[in-house]
Amino acid sequence: MLTLTHSLLESNENLIVRFVKQYLVIFCINQMASALFRLMAALGRDIVVANTAGTFALLAVTVLGGFVISRGEKMVV
Question: CB neighbours of 71 closer than 8 A, spacing ≥ 6?
Fold first, then answer.
């Protein structure tokens, strides 16, 4: 996590300014993750909706994680 935010803020600025910017980026990422978690909890109050939303969430993580979409050459069948 630190390397992801550090590479975005890499510059020749003051040390205090870089620290505040990095803290702000990490704080915003934390707020976004908390909001998405609360959204999933609010949508999944019923067991049917919870199972459907959980399945779609796992599907989205799998597809966007690169397990289904390959990064190499396309295979021709």
Answer: none
Longest dimension (CA), the chain: 56
List phi, psi (to 5°) of 55: -65, -45
Q: Model confidence at 23, in pLDDT bands (50, 70, 90)?
A: very high
76's tokens: 């021709």
User: Can you read off the two tokens belonging to residue 10?
Assistant: 């890499």
- If we measure between CA atoms, which residue out of 34, 26, 32, 49 comes closest to residue 57? 49
Mean pLDDT of 64-70: 66
More confident residue, 41 or 70: 41
